């Protein structure tokens, strides 16, 4: 009658004295016989030891034996308050006997111990928590049976667990290890949070916890994504049930609690069976074989209907014909899962080992008022690569000796089915709302080729568009009103022209710089020579009847204190040969805002009589400038004047000038048709 919490697994387990961690009762005894696989040895570790030693371990003690039965040999006898045993007690065989004796005492909690096979060198006890370790990440082995009523945990996945929580108990709650089997945990320590949530999972209740300096989480395989009930990846036609409840509400409307309503977090009535008995079931077709690692359930989320399932079994199948009840590895009994304790809170249960199947059937065993539930399955795709081709041959004739072998083969295949299936190959499932990265398949290899190609194509298109946009903008900047030759746009050609020697006014163009004061003291025939011989930083005029090229700078440069004036020769009064004048081309957009005068060589024109008036191509605003001192030529200048806003144009000699009230008449060369009219510039 002295045995307390006890779980003896095939490779590990936990044992404690009665009433632990409270004071153990007087005059009690308990004996545990532990066995593991032949060829292995057992190691024993104490998490807590507090046994009265007032009589030197005579009436109260803990004794460990190597072996079981009459042939067992004592390894050691232990007692003491707060006894610390740093090392492990190791057996010499695969069997150990642990004996606890409690005599007359007034205090002492008893003990809590764990065991495992000796290959688990990183064994910890159920009482160890994250604060006992300083490493930011570590691996430990949790024994079976660490779900103990006297230990607390706070937190949940994926947010993490408070550092005061039992590592192994939190591992069971997170679904990393099984309470009946134990297992390896990979722990990561990080900064704590202000609040830890509570939940019920795998028959472990996590409590709400306050702020802590650190927390811990577990590294897992990642196969815990949702498989499509909530998201709708699983269609309604693949969710079926044994029966459906139909009920009329207060308004007389009939509500059908259909199986497709059994989707977690959907705002609707759940699935409910019309008859509540142990023959009811809810079935989900995943369309392909999946690795199923867990299930989340709720009852009716409608406040007026407090329906839920408190216990159930899980069955699985590949063809929906032959069903297998889920059992934990090494167990000979069907596993019964704890369901909901209230209708609206979610409860999670994990499958260790996972189920490999296409069809899942949930069979309620206990319920509150009526069978009603909503469900979500957790897991990921199942793909282990293609199996090699198998050549089918006719089976050999059977004999009596093969009968037992066939039975063994069936059992072996059944056990392997719950963990892996190497004779079937599945492809990437249609999983949405999952946090799991699928395994590498042919699609991944194809994507590895297509993704770089698509990236290169899109990059090339972007570069082409950018270049086209840049070329278009550059072309707009270079375009003017008139198209200039390419050789005249080149900057080097402009610079080189300034160093060429001046040959003649007819064939060579030279930069010209002049001012109105210099021109007024020259005779008409000296003006071209003066303009040709003086080098300046402005563009060349048009010479010899040829439309010359224009530089990017203006031929007009204003002098300080007064406006620059425009001047031109009078082609009608000039005795030299008359030629048709050419018009200056527009300046490039980058040049200064000054006009380019037009210089005409009159050597090619026949001389005209002095009485013939000259025509100027320049329009003067305001008063006319005084004529230049010279023979038969006249320059018109423009000055700013506020005295007259009327525009005057030069008129031939001998004809009356326009009056103040008459409109001005434009005159054109004799070779062109005369046109008159009223025009404004």
Automatic annotation (TrEMBL):
Keyword list, A-Z: Disulfide bond, Membrane, Phosphoprotein, Transmembrane, Transmembrane helix
Region (Disordered): 642-662
Disulfide bond annotation, renumbered to this chain: 3-30
GO CC annotation terms, alphabetical: plasma membrane
InterPro entries, sorted: CUB_dom, FA58C, Galactose-bd-like_sf, LCCL, LCCL_sf, Neuropilin_MCO_CoagFactor, Sperma_CUB_dom_sf
Domain F5/8 type C: 223-380
Annotated CUB domain residues: 3-118
Domain of life: Eukaryota
Localization of this protein: Membrane
Keyword Transmembrane helix part of the UniProt annotation: yes
Spans traversing the lipid bilayer: 444-469
Gene3D superfamilies attached to this UniProt entry: Galactose-binding domain-like (2.60.120.260), LCCL-like domain (2.170.130.20), Spermadhesin, CUB domain (2.60.120.290)
Main location: membrane
SUPFAM superfamilies on file: Galactose-binding domain-like, LCCL domain, Spermadhesin, CUB domain
Bilayer topology: Single-pass type I membrane protein
UniProt-recorded Gene Ontology molecular function terms: signaling receptor activity
One Pfam match: F5_F8_type_C
GO biological process, one term: wound healing
Record bears the keyword Phosphoprotein: yes
Domain LCCL intervals: 120-216
Protein's name in the database: DCBD2 protein
Origin species: Piaya cayana (Common squirrel cuckoo)
The gene coding this protein: Dcbld2
């Amino acid at each position: 009658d002295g045995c307390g919490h006890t779980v003896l697994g095939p490779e590990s387990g936990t044992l404690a004295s009665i009433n632990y961690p409270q004071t153990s009762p007087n005059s009690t005894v308990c004996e545990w016989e532990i066995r593991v696989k032949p060829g292995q040895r057992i190691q024993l570790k104490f998490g807590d030891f507090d046994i009265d030693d007032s009589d030197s371990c005579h009436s109260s003690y803990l004794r460990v034996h190597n072996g079981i039965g009459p042939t067992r040999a004592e390894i050691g006898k232990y007692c003491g308050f707060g006894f610390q045993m740093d090392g492990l007690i190791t057996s010499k065989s695969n069997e150990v006997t642990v004996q606890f004796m409690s005599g007359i005492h007034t205090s002492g909690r008893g003990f809590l111990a764990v065991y495992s096979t000796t290959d688990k060198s990183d064994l910890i006890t159920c009482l160890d928590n994250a604060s006992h370790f300083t490493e930011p990440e570590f691996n430990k082995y949790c024994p079976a049976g660490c779900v103990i009523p006297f230990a607390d945990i706070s937190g949940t996945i994926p947010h993490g667990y408070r550092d005061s929580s039992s590592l192994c108990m939190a591992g069971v709650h997170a679904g990393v290890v099984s309470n009946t089997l134990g297992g390896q945990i990979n722990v990561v320590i990080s900064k704590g949070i202000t609040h830890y949530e509570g939940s019920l999972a795998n028959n472990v209740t996590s409590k709400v916890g306050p702020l802590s300096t650190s927390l811990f989480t577990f590294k897992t395989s990642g196969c815990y994504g949702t498989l499509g009930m909530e998201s709708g990846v699983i269609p309604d036609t693949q969710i079926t049930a044994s029966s459906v409840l139909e009920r009329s509400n207060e308004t007389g409307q009939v509500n059908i609690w259909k199986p497709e309503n059994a989707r977690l977090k959907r705002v609707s009535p759940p699935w409910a069976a019309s008859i509540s008995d142990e023959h009811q079931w809810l079935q989900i077709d995943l369309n392909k074989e999946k690795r199923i690692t867990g299930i989340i359930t709720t009852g009716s989320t409608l406040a007026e209907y407090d329906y839920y399932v408190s216990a159930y079994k899980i069955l699985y199948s590949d063809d929906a014909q032959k069903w297998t009840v889920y059992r934990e590895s090494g167990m000979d009994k069907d596993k019964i899962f704890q369901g909901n304790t209230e209708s609206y809170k979610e409860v999670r249960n994990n499958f260790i080992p996972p189920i490999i199947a296409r069809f899942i059937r949930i069979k309620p065993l206990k319920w509150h008022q009526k069978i009603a539930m909503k469900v979500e399955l957790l897991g990921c795709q199942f793909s282990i690569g293609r199996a090699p081709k198998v050549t089918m041959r006719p089976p050999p004739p059977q004999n009596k000796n093969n009968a037992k072998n066939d039975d063994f083969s069936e059992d072996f295949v059944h056990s392997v089915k719950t963990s892996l299936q190497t004779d079937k190959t599945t492809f990437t499932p249609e999983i949405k709302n999952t946090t799991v990265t699928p395994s590498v398949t042919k699609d991944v290899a194809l994507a590895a080729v297509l993704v770089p190609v698509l990236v290169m194509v899109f990059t090339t298109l972007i570069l082409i568009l950018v270049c086209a946009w840049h070329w278009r903008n550059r072309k707009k900047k270079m375009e003017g009103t008139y198209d200039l030759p390419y050789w005249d746009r080149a900057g080097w050609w402009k610079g080189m022209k300034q160093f060429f020697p001046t040959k003649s006014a007819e064939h060579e163009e030279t930069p010209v710089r002049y001012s109105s004061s210099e021109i007024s003291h020259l005779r008409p025939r000296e003006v071209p020579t003066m303009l040709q011989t003086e080098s300046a930083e402005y563009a060349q005029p048009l010479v010899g009847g040829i439309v010359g090229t224009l530089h990017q700078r203006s031929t007009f440069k204003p002098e300080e204190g007064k406006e620059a004036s425009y001047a031109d020769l009078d082609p009608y009064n000039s005795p030299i040969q008359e030629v048709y004048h050419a018009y200056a081309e527009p300046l490039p957009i980058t040049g200064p805002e000054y006009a380019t005068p037009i210089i005409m060589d009159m050597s090619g024109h026949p001389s005209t009589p002095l009485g013939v008036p000259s025509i100027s191509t320049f329009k003067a605003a305001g008063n006319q400038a005084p004529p230049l001192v010279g023979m038969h030529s006249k320059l018109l200048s423009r000055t700013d004047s506020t005295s007259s806003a009327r525009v005057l144009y030069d008129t031939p000699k001998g004809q009356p000038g326009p009056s103040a009230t008459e409109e001005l008449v434009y005159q054109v060369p004799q070779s062109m048709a005369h046109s008159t009219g009223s025009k404004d510039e």
